[in-house]
Amino acid sequence: MSNCDQFREMYEAYALGALDPPERSTLEAHLATGCAECAKSVAEARWLVSQLAYLAPEAATSDMLKGRLMQTVRSEAKSKSSLPVATAPRTTTSGIPYWLSAGIAALLLLTLYFAWDAHRLKQELRAANEQNQRAEQLVASAAGERAATQQKLAGMEEQMAKMHRETAILTDPASVKIMLAAQKIQAPQMVAMWHAKYGIVLTGQKVPMPSGNRVLQLWLIPKAPGGKPMPSMTVRPDANGNFVLLVSNPPAAGSHTKALAITEEPAGGSPAPTTTPKWVGAMS
């Protein structure tokens, strides 16, 4: 679309002085750039508007209109020259038949009406588009809030399921209790509860904070001779040195495990121990 296309429905309304101030300012600013096409169209629209004042039957017709219509008038006069004077068509003082003058007036009025109506419809369409955009923004915002709520709800459900599993492990008489004693460090014991169905819950209180961003990692020591420690989950105590670690799916069954051990490892854990165990507890 050319730059002038946006102004095509404004010419007649501008000539009538019916444009809104913002649209009038926009069109005048465009005309000030020297656009010949729009200047010509505005001039024609002003001419059409000016002719409404001269189309009354007794008013003198403009020279421009005479020039455009004289040929049509002469042709009609020739075709009617054989009629009696009493039946000749009535004309205005300028020689233009009344029916032709009235037709031109009606045509001009229709042109101006359609231009105004098109401008009005364009404004309504623009308002409707803006309203649709606002509605789409509201829908998108509501969808985002709904997704955030669903995510939050899923997190809460996951947390509740974890708490239920931890409670079952800690309270079920079938769980095996394992005390992990500190090795060569001054630190309280850790306590592990192992349930054959629900997993392991490891708890610690006033545990020394690992250095830097390192973590504590749980290992399962197999009963099989020469078996390598099996890596499990990692944890980092809170500011008070406390933690609760749930291992829902231990890498080995309790019947195949000789002991549990805790080492200090890099963030994310290690596939094999990189330090000597700081806590160890034998399966009873």
Description:
Residues 56-61 and 83-89 have low confidence and may be disordered. The protein is rod-shaped. The chain folds into two domains: 5-142, no CATH class; 176-282. The protein starts with 10 loop residues before the first helix and ends with a strand. The protein is α+β, with helices and mostly antiparallel strands. The protein contains five helices and eight strands. A hairpin with a 7-residue loop joins strand 4 (215-222) and strand 5 (230-235).
Which helices and strands appear, and what pairs or packs with what?
Layout: H1 11-16, H2 21-32, H3 36-51, H4 63-80, H5 98-171, E1 176-182, E2 190-195, E3 199-204, E4 215-222, E5 230-235, E6 243-247, E7 257-265, E8 279-282
Antiparallel strand pairs: 1-2, 1-8, 2-3, 3-6, 4-5, 4-7, 7-8
For this entry, give a set of tags.
8 strands, 284 residues, alpha+beta, 8-stranded antiparallel sheet, 18% strand, single chain, rod-shaped
Please sum up the structure shown.
This protein is an alpha+beta fold and 284 residues long. The chain has helices spanning 11-16, 21-32, 36-51, 63-80, 98-171, and strands at 176-182, 190-195, 199-204, 215-222, 230-235, 243-247, 257-265, 279-282.
